[in-house]
Amino acid sequence: MNLQQLRYVVEVVRAGLNVSEAADALYTSQPGVSKQIRQLEEELGIEIFVRHGKRLTGVTEPGRQVLAIAERMLGEVDSLKKVGAEFRNESEGVLTIATTHNQARYALPRVVQAYVQKYPGVRLHLHQGSPRQICEWVLEGEADLAIATESVGETEGLVSLPSYQWNRCVIATPRHPILKTTPLTLEEIVKYPIVTYDTTFAGRSEVNRAFLGRGLKPNVVLAAMDADVIKTYVAMDLGIGLIASIAYDPIVDRRIGAVDASHLFSSAVTRIGIRKNAYLRGYVYGFIELMSSHLTRRVVDAALLGGGSDAGL
Description:
Layout: H1 3-14, H2 19-25, H3 30-44, E1 49-52, E2 55-59, H4 61-88, E3 93-99, H5 101-107, H6 109-118, E4 122-128, H7 131-139, E5 145-148, E6 158-166, E7 168-172, H8 186-189, E8 194-197, H9 204-213, E9 220-224, H10 227-235, E10 240-244, E11 257-260, E12 268-275, H11 282-291, H12 297-306
Parallel strand pairs: 3-4, 3-5, 8-9, 8-10
Antiparallel strand pairs: 1-2, 5-12, 6-12, 7-10, 7-11
């Protein structure tokens, strides 16, 4: 048995059981991959894959257990390699952050600015996607950290760290009556068409829960993935908007006004997701702590060892 055989098994599964595609990804031949997998199966005394002729059609039950162990072992090998790099230089490397547009646009700029000054030797990459996409990127090793409000805390295989709390405001054209409504209530909000986040983004589930709890059905005429789009259509008077308070800037957003709505909705929590058993280089801890001062290296390590954390904000 050797690590190369385990890599072949993992890559074949990752390639959707397409051995040719896996061989291309591994820069080797299809017969070589098939032969090594057969040798591993013979040594273990089990079949890892279900076969129909020469074609792989599935993973057997013992094969699933082998796959889980192989992924863990290969992850540990990667961690061993990173240990060497860490001790050689923990202030140089590449840090890839997977996040949503809202986080990249409104929450991260100050963090990134401070980070590039403190770690000039680190190349920082921001990959934007949906909450589910960014979690998958971290699980697959394509990114180091996932930063989002949705999905991070519910994704198996990720350690979830609470970063910061936020709430919402109502936005509208400057003369819209909702901006002068006192007190602002959910009943007043549902009188107007609403433009807000897509159901998979930015704590939308909390908004839905608040209206449902009062037996109200909001008229959402447009759902978007980021606040910039919402603000554009609100400025066109398509409806009133519900966005994260951090996304409204009275200096920049002069075509719209805003009123606080934090008393109407539960606070949302943006979380940082890290792959379980991941080895973090020093500059990754540095980014996490710059973003959330309560997430010190000690707190993060304790969460990684424990498999999860809800360390207080």
